[in-house]
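sry for the spam today, last one i promise. struct tokens for design, 356 residues
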């Protein structure tokens, strides 16, 4: 295929992510927040089994059509990360039953908070004052948003402590997923020691095994919790719910392909910019399409604080960083140069994105 101008490629990737995940967000909100015959859908693991299954099937077709990496795949590590990712989504989806969609999106935007905390506690990482300021701004924004919300008594409206706790559990699992994805990278290098060639599975291989493990675990949990049969009964009584689940699952699968396309053609910073903008758009669209999601003035301030922190993180990464000063050569060596260490923070070493 002839190469396209970078501007056109970026437009394709951004439009694909916006359209796919906007459809996903709208239909997911309808499934969990609308009343059907006076009832609300509550079979979270049933819906997740369908979504993960559709994603896995899409990835399987993509792998067969486009080919695999030829690497030895660390199946166990990918399965573990897929299960962790599915549990994070389960908590996030379940939270939609108890909080508004804008609250869920803003809460999930705090993902960098547990990641930073985990880095400090588990890895002894250090962060700059600017990074601490960004996390503080985002956290304060979410607190302002939730503390000054309108009190609603209507079922399906308002933000309950249980919903906020579920968002917290989802964030915890997101941080855990990041560590498991790091293990996938390391194990892939161990299983494929050749100095040349790809060092991680192809996008469809990662997508296939991650979603397959999530699908199997979601199906098992759906059986154990009764969500499988309650979900089937609900969808039999309200077929429009099953249609919405299938369509937003397809949107998720298509969106993941655009995520990987953007990541491959550009870099994680561009991808983060696109996905953050998409979250802002989805939040505003949800507020304006659903009167139940109308915000108070302090809540608008909280929104601005959260997204200002996220955009600030993007701008900080766009600024060129100063290279570390080169150490002086040893006095008794004529040539002390060697191969530079691999940059673990480089785009090529980054783990596949867990979600958008």
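last one done:
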């Amino acid at each position: 295929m002839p190469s396209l101008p970078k501007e056109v490629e970026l437009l394709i990737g951004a439009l694909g992510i916006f359209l796919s995940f906007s459809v996903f967000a709208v239909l997911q909100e309808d499934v969990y927040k609308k009343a059907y015959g006076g009832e609300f859908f509550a079979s979270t693991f049933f819906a997740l089994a369908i979504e993960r299954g559709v994603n896995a099937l899409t990835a399987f077709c993509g792998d067969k059509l486009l080919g695999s990496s030829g690497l030895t795949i660390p199946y166990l590590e990918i399965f573990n990360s897929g299960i962790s990712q599915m549990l994070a989504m389960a908590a996030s989806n379940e939270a939609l039953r108890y909080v508004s969609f804008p609250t869920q999106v803003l809460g999930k935007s705090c993902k960098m908070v547990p990641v930073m905390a985990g880095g400090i506690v588990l890895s002894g990482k250090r962060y700059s004052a600017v990074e601490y300021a960004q996390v503080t701004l985002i956290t304060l924004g979410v607190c302002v948003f939730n503390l000054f919300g309108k009190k609603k008594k209507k079922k399906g409206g308002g933000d309950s402590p249980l919903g906020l706790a579920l968002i917290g559990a989802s964030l915890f699992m997101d941080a855990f997923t990041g560590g498991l994805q790091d293990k996938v990278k390391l194990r892939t290098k161990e299983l494929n020691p050749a100095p040349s060639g790809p060092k991680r599975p192809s996008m469809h291989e990662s997508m296939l095994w991650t979603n397959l493990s999530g699908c199997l675990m979601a199906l098992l949990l759906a059986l154990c919790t009764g969500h499988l049969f309650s979900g089937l009964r609900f969808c039999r009584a309200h077929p429009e719910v099953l249609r919405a689940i299938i369509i937003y699952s397809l949107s998720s699968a298509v969106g993941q392909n655009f995520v990987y396309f953007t990541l491959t053609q550009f870099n994680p910073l561009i991808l983060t910019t696109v996905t953050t903008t998409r979250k802002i758009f989805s939040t505003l669209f949800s507020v304006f399409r659903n009167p139940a999601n109308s915000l108070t003035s302090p809540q608008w301030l909280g929104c601005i604080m959260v997204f200002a922190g996220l955009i600030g993180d993007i701008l900080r990464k766009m600024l060129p960083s100063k290279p570390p000063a080169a150490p002086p050569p040893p006095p008794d060596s004529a040539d002390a140069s060697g191969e530079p260490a691999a940059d673990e923070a480089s785009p090529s070493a980054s783990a596949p994105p867990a979600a958008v």
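The first strand starts at residue 35 and ends at 36. ok im logging off now
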